[in-house]
Amino acid sequence: MGDSLPPPAEFDLVDSFARLRGADAEIALGDPKTELVGVEQTVRLSQGRRRIDAAAEMSDSPTGRRLTVRVPRSRLSDGIWSLQVVHADGSVAPLAARLLVQGRRPLVLLWGAHGGKSQVPAGRPTDVKRRVAATGARVLDRALTLLPEEKAARVRQQVRTTARKVLG
What we know:
- The chain is built from 2 helices and 8 strands.
- It is of the alpha+beta class and 168 residues long.
- It has 2 domains: 100 residues, Immunoglobulin-like, CATH 2.60.40; 43 residues.
- It has an 8-stranded antiparallel beta sheet, with no helix packed on it.
- The radius of gyration is 28 Å and the shape is elongated.
- The chain starts with 11 loop residues before the first strand and ends with a helix.
């Protein structure tokens, strides 16, 4: 059997979440590995050139430390937002977490500073070839309605032969 464990994260994946709480987006990171000093923090959410600094609070509980960030949902446009801690001296430390915002859908907490590349599933080549052949046949049939039936039959046969060579 394969390994079903997720890749290593910079925070506790089980005790972390993102959700809407009233008009705010709330992000909670359980036991963050980033160096944090003090109870109050500033977390920067960034998406491309857009940046939003939000107040964050570090709290201790029986399950461990938790960093909780709240930002008005109205300030977050759709897309993926990166999270970073802004220290008092202005330096920035990544949290290796991202927030996915998609309209009215629930917020999604993603781990990792950057996502992997998306991969489009490859269709079966025979399906693609079959669709191309069927579409070509329909277009050809429409075009050949102008020719006499005997001439149209010869053209169809020539096109089929050529298509079989090309499409394999």
